[in-house]
Amino acid sequence: MKYTVIILLSVLILSSCGNGDEITQKEEWAAKPVSEWPELVFTNDIEFKDTTYTGIANAFLVDTGNDTIGVTCKHIFLVLKHEELPTIDLGENFIRWKAYPKGKEDKYMIFREMINKNSDEMVDAFNTLKSRDWLLFEVDDIPEEFTPLKIRTKPLQENEIIYCLGWPFKQKEGAPSLVKMQIFRNAGPYYYINTLTENVDPAGRSGSPVIDANGFLVGIVSGAEGRLGVICNVNYLDEFIKVKRQK
């Protein structure tokens, strides 16, 4: 009987270790003071033939397990009004997408081909985009100090504490701020959250990565509805990566 219990415990431990949904370790950088964290978040300059949108929304890198991709919010298309882009496609007038830490324009990377470009997907409005608010890019020539985030696929629990890392639009330089939040409700493809940090300027924080206490990616800042924030979860991102791996 004793040996049976030991074997069962061993099986359970091995099963747990093999389950990608289980987060048992903290990212090395997440154990350090925030001031010592690597470059995790960036802002976007998007250049078209006649217009350049500077310093809009936030962006970050994701470690897919096979490569690194660039990520920002899909509802950024709602800001590109002058380009009259009806679908998730940057169009013929697009020139360059540059991502860099605010105030450090000389240290940048280029988001190249949009991985989830879809000329059949209408830009539509926030109420539909928030369910799939991920814009994914191929990216190369990544500076060494730019660090990608790893995905946690285990769902967040009600009242769990999470953190948003990013800049508001008005902040032009300096370190991004870490905003403490709490899960209010799981709405399927996204979460409603309460912001616990006081005096937070929400404008322009869209596209910021949302991490758990261990430093793993759990969502992306999508917007707000009334007094509650909206965080798109990683389901769309995770499924897209799985499909990409199979090709």
Describe it.
With 247 residues, the chain is mostly beta strands. Helix content is 13%, strand content 38%. It has two domains: 41-147; 150-238, Thrombin, subunit H, CATH 2.40.10. The chain has helices at residues 2-18, 126-129, 235-246, and strands spanning 41-48, 52-63, 68-72, 87-88, 94-100, 109-114, 118-122, 135-140, 149-150, 161-166, 177-186, 190-195, 209-211, 217-225, 228-233. The strands form three sheets. A six-stranded antiparallel beta barrel has the order 1-2-3-8-6-5. Strands 10-11-12-15-14-13 form a six-stranded antiparallel beta barrel. A hairpin with a 5-residue loop joins strand 13 (209-211) and strand 14. The chain is globular, with a radius of gyration of 19 Å. The termini are far apart.
